[in-house]
Design goal:
14 strands; D-Maltodextrin-Binding Protein, domain 2; Arc Repressor Mutant, subunit A; five-stranded mixed beta sheet; 3 domains; 21% strand; alpha/beta; 330 residues
């Protein structure tokens, strides 16, 4: 490409930027992404070190410049309009391309550095991800790690996350999943409960049992799916105790309050010690492989690639006290 053509393109770019007045398109995208990540004007203002009215004025200027409404606003919450969702998602891609360009120019692609934000579930995050990140931080001292533990589904783009550890199938085709280890769910109960209530012989027998239900992620509350060969059974269970915390549910199962569905990694030690016993062992539950998910991109940042490789190696090596069979790298 000739130098003259490059000059024409540069001049065209400068002229288009001039139309934005005092606001820059890239900074507007970053501002809007931060606003959605924080979830409110007040929280965004605190993060930016300015007043909420200043955030409101900036948003109004942005919407005026674009000629569309990006958000529906109430006193407590903000919600994306269809145009706002397009601006956020496509804007994240544009900002990612810009970041990739800057990494290429600066040479950061081969040297992991900067902030990485990772989400994980409460129990697994505390027990296994936190120790892994401790080792990762020592191995990559130039990478700052923020771990967000939650029992709710996360949206990587809207919440400004680089990656998340999740269980089960990948719900979003725009994400890439790196499987960290195989994991299956099991049904179990204490020997004392089974001695008192009897052992279920078929999935339908669970209807006559007390079941401990965990309200977490986006799974259908209290609905258990089992299969044996070609047979499929779905049971809507009930019980007197439910929680969003797996550790609390396991404690209740150990104390004889009913049948519990739990990931194998969480109850394997109790099963091995006889404190819990498998229920309906001939029936299988949906797999819940542990994966690291991140936005699909042709040029993955060095910090995200380093984290993915490190966690895959960590779990392949068993980590500390891991009892679940690790999965082969996909």
């Amino acid at each position: 490409m000739s130098k003259a053509i490059n000059t024409v393109k540069i001049n065209s770019f400068i002229n288009s930027k001039h139309e934005l007045g005092t606001m820059d398109g890239f900074s507007d995208l970053r501002f809007f992404a931060l606003l959605m990540k924080e979830g409110s004007l007040a929280a965004a203002a605190q993060q930016m070190g300015i007043t909420p009215p200043a955030v409101s004025r900036r948003l109004a200027q942005l919407e005026h410049r674009l000629g569309v409404r990006l958000l529906h606003r109430t006193t407590r919450r903000i919600h994306l309009t269809p145009e706002g969702e397009t601006y956020l998602l496509d804007g994240a891609r544009i900002l990612g391309d810009l970041e990739a360009l800057e990494r290429t120019v600066a040479g950061a692609r081969s040297s992991p550095r900067g902030l990485i934000k990772l989400a994980a579930t409460l129990g697994f995050g505390r027990v296994h991800i936190a120790p892994a990140l401790s080792a990762f931080s020592r191995a990559y001292p130039e990478v700052e790690v923020q771990l967000h533990l939650t029992d709710r589904p996360v949206n990587l783009v809207e919440q400004g996350l680089d990656a998340a550890v999740r269980f089960g199938d990948l719900p979003d085709s725009r994400l890439t999943a790196r499987r960290l280890m195989a994991n299956r769910r099991v049904l179990c109960a204490s020997p004392a409960y089974l001695a008192h209530a009897g052992e279920p012989a078929q999935p339908a027998d669970l209807l006559a049992h007390l079941c401990i239900v965990i309200r977490e992620s986006d799974e259908t509350y209290g609905t258990w799916h089992l299969h044996q060969g070609g047979r499929q059974e779905t049971v809507k269970v009930r019980g007197m105790l439910s929680t969003n915390d797996g550790a609390a549910a396991t404690t209740w199962a150990l104390e004889g309050h009913g049948v519990l569905m739990r990931s194998e990694w969480d109850v394997a030690a109790h099963l091995a010690a006889g404190r819990l016993r498998r229920v309906l062992p001939a029936w299988a539950l949906p797999a819940a492989d542990v994966t690291l998910v991140y936005p699909t991109r042709s040029d993955l940042s060095a910090k995200t690639r380093a984290l993915a490789d490190f966690l895959a190696a960590w779990f392949s090596g068993g980590g500390k006290d891991l009892v679940v069979r690790p999965a082969a790298r996909p």
